[in-house]
UniProtKB/TrEMBL annotation:
Biological process annotations from GO: cell adhesion; Rho protein signal transduction
GO MF terms, alphabetically ordered: actin filament binding; cadherin binding
Cellular localization per UniProt: Cytoplasm
Gene3D superfamilies: Alpha-catenin/vinculin-like
Organism: Circaetus pectoralis (black-chested snake-eagle)
Protein name (record): Alpha-catulin
InterPro entries: Alpha-catenin/vinculin-like_sf (IPR036723), Alpha_catenin (IPR001033), CTNNAL1 (IPR030045), Vinculin/catenin (IPR006077)
Taxonomy, superkingdom: Eukaryota
Biased composition (Low complexity): 7-18
Assigned protein family: Belongs to the vinculin/alpha-catenin family.
Keyword terms: Cytoplasm
Region described as Disordered: 1-20
Length: 763
């Protein structure tokens, strides 16, 4: 998006007023985009006043207040921008220029809105917003452009932090590769663990801030690789140190390091939006997306007979049918599915030929009969493509269901562990061949599922799963060979366990992915964003021992099922309420969506499904959920500052309730417990308190939506935000200490300053 930074946020009036940010600036994060929304809104309000014939004293005073307040807020904003420039010398020149431009534009707007003291602003020689609309538009453009530049430059600092963190991780990895003693390894790995935690937090924040869902999915996949590989790196390195002359141990370790480097590189590609050697990312087109685009073109003929050529349409169908060969050529596609796909492919060609024939005639002679024939041909072609889509979906998902059910007993992995401990090299070789066959089946399954996944994020998840099976299979084999060569080695046994767990975990994730693909296909659930948090607690303990995963047994799942179902219903209610909001980028909606996604993950946990595998995962998710709820409460308080409707006391009361409930949930989630019974009680308490928060959210969202609609209807339920207060700045007396600089001079501080530009949209 390179035009108006707020075009996707519903602030469309800016374009009608001639406003727009610098066309060369692409805004890739939600935080930058949302920070600009109030500024665009208020500037647009000022400009639109020119078109109103009647101007009361109240209106003139309101205009002047808005102009002065914008100028004051810009001044504060620029002060923080200049501080950022001083802290980051490589950006100082660009930042300083943008800050000067912003300050100048803010002052111009203040001068042009200095109208309250003028009885007849049109006849006075003083130039104002009423006599020089061009000047206001020019100043507004300059202000938006310069503020956007400052925000984007500040965002570069976040990118720089991620790159610096990645470089630290890479440097420590190089040291880990070269160590020759256990003592040295333990010391360096402890440092590596801390660096990975820092990198995980930075990239996690970035992932949640990305606007592009495709990039967000790629980031989640890369971070998942890094999380799993951290434990693999530990055991593989220890095995190599214990058996330095073992070739299979070295191959196993090298594979982990290589995969981690690739994942780190992909994170940087996403963050910087660049690829090595300037090459473009090539993502294969799926059958689902190909059919969707093809149908759109075909249906477009109803409106315009000349917007594309018949060659274009024929080529599109040819590409789709080429992709169906992935199914018809696959050894794992059933004979029945193969025959149906071939039959439908042949029918699709015939339907398109008929469509093209009628289409060409209609271009020459647009009669009523021909247009009716064209409509029939369009319907038949689209119906055929729908049947083809349904058939390939059935072929892929039925294969996946069968394979997952067949391999869920993990018999080959169990056999490898047993024969490895026995030192039976011949039996290990036999079972590694079986694992290789299983890997090929699962890789093929992922390729076929990608064609029918339905959304780009799910496509990326399929590609990630394919890569995981492709890489983890050979790593299990090398780990099993090492154990067979050293059957009494505890570390070699532990290493094989870690790689087998990664395989089992990916199989479990595939079951969830299959359900999501079916949900999207059947329209039951859209692109519900699942909150992924890294690192999970306990992954990088100083003693290098992983926490033993604790899962709910069948009896416990049955006990908690009713509570989980209530939570599921509440997430649906919250989603329905949020769909009613016109502005989906509103901060209240964003926090609500995050909370709903996390609550849905917790519901899946009660069923033994989803990304939360252990009770520790659930407790960590509950903490993050409570934090998000506290952020929502802050947003509600900010919103209430602008409300003088009768509902304000109720809004404040509900916001205080939310803070209290989130605080209680955090205390419960952080509480230390021991024993199975106590752990289950804690799980029950966390889900119960999450349900209560979601119940409150169902009441809050309609109330806020009603207040916003009142404002748009002109009922005046919003009032000017209070004047700038020094205590709102996050820069305290100790703000310049090193540990506070990152917090003070970052994009969050700039958000705080622009937030104070939200004032009265005067009547």
């Amino acid at each position: 998006m390179a035009t108006s930074p707020c075009s996707s946020s519903g602030v469309s009036s800016s374009s009608s007023s001639g406003l727009g940010a610098d066309a060369g600036l692409e805004i890739r994060t939600r935080s930058v985009e949302q920070t600009l929304v109030p500024l665009v809104s208020q500037i647009t309000t000022l400009i639109n006043h020119k078109d109103k014939p009647k101007r009361s004293d109240k209106t003139l005073q309101a205009i002047q207040r808005v102009g002065q307040a914008v100028n004051l807020a810009v001044g504060r904003f620029v002060t923080v921008g200049e501080a950022i420039a001083n802290e980051n010398h490589e950006l100082k020149e660009e930042m300083s220029v943008a800050c000067i431009e912003a300050r100048r534009a803010g002052e111009t707007i203040a001068q042009l809105t200095d109208v309250a003291s003028l009885d007849h602003p049109e006849s006075d020689s003083h130039i104002t917003i009423f006599t020089d609309k061009t000047g206001v538009v020019k100043a507004a453009r300059l202000l938006l452009s310069s503020v956007t530049k400052v925000l984007v430059l500040a965002d570069r600092i976040v990118i720089k932090q991620i790159i610096t963190s990645r470089n630290k991780v890479l440097a420590t990895m190089e040291q880990l590769e070269k160590v020759s003693s256990f003592q040295e390894f333990v010391q360096i790995f402890s440092q590596f663990g801390n660096e990975m935690v820092e990198f995980a937090h930075l990239t996690g924040d970035r992932q949640n801030d990305l606007k592009d869902e495709k990039k967000k999915a790629r980031m989640a996949a890369s971070r998942a690789v890094l999380e799993k590989c951290t434990m693999m790196l530990l055991t593989a390195s220890k095995t190599c140190l214990r058996h330095p002359d073992c070739e299979s141990a070295r191959i196993n370790k090298d594979g982990v390091f290589h995969r981690m480097r690739l994942a780190l590189e992909q994170v940087i590609e996403i963050v910087t939006d660049s690829r090595p050697n300037g090459e473009n990312e090539m993502v294969p087109i799926s059958i689902y997306s190909g059919i969707k685009e093809f149908k759109n073109k075909v249906e477009g003929l109803r409106e315009n007979l000349y917007f594309l050529s018949k060659e274009n349409l024929l080529t599109m169908l040819e590409v789709i049918l080429e992709h169906t060969e992935d199914f018809t050529d696959s050894a794992y596609t059933s004979h029945e599915h193969r025959e149906h796909i071939l039959e439908l492919s042949k029918q699709a060609k015939m339907e398109l030929e008929q469509l093209v024939s009628v289409w060409m005639q209609a271009q020459n002679q647009k009669t009523k009969d021909l247009m009716e024939d064209l409509e029939v041909a369009i319907l038949k072609t689209c119906q055929c493509m729908n049947e083809l889509k349904r058939e390939v979906h059935s072929a892929a998902t039925s294969l996946a269901a069968d394979l997952l059910k067949y391999h869920m007993d993990h018999m080959v992995l169990k056999a490898l562990k047993i024969t490895g401990v026995e030192g039976n090299l011949e039996a290990v070789a036999e079972y590694t061949c079986k694992l290789s066959e299983q890997k090929e089946q699962l890789v093929e399954m992922c390729r076929l599922l990608r064609h029918v996944s339905g959304t780009e994020p799910l496509e990326i998840t399929c590609i990630h799963a394919e890569d995981t099976f492709q890489v983890t299979g050979p790593q299990i084999i090398s780990a099993a060979e090492t154990l067979a060569l050293h059957p009494s080695s505890k570390i070699a046994k532990e290493n094989l366990e870690v790689f087998c767990e990664a395989w089992e975990s990916q199989l479990s994730d595939m079951s969830m992915l299959l359900r999501e693909i079916n949900d999207v296909f059947e329209g039951r659930r859209g692109e519900k964003r699942v909150y992924l948090s890294l690192p999970r607690p306990g992954k990088h303990n100083a003693n290098l021992k992983a926490l033993k995963p604790v899962k709910l047994d069948t009896e416990e799942q049955a006990k908690i099922a009713k509570l989980g179902l209530e939570l599921h219903l509440l997430t649906s209610d919250v989603d329905s309420e949020m769909e009613k909001w016109e502005d989906q980028e509103n901060e209240i909606v964003q926090h609500g969506q995050g909370m709903s996604s996390m609550a849905y993950s917790m519901y899946l946990f009660t069923r033994g499904e989803g990304l939360l595998k252990t009770t520790q995962d659930l407790f960590h998710q509950a903490e993050i959920f409570a934090t998000e709820g506290t952020k929502l409460a802050s947003a509600l308080h900010a919103f209430s500052d602008q409300v003088h409707d009768d509902d304000k006391p109720l809004l404040l009361l509900e916001a205080e309730k939310l803070i209290s409930m989130c605080r209680q949930l955090q205390i419960t989630a952080k509480a230390s417990v021991q024993g199975k019974s106590a752990t289950f009680t804690k799980v029950d308490a966390c889900i119960l308190k999450t349900r209560n928060v979601m119940t409150l959210l169902c009441q809050l969202l309609p109330l806020c939506c009603k207040l916003l609609r009142k404002n748009k209807a002109g009922n005046g339920c919003l009032k000017p935000a209070p004047p700038w207060r020094e205590d709102r700045m996050r820069t305290g007396t100790n703000a310049h200490t090193p540990e506070r600089r990152a917090e003070t001079f970052g994009i969050k501080s700039l958000e705080n300053h622009v937030t104070n530009m939200t004032f009265l949209e005067s009547k």
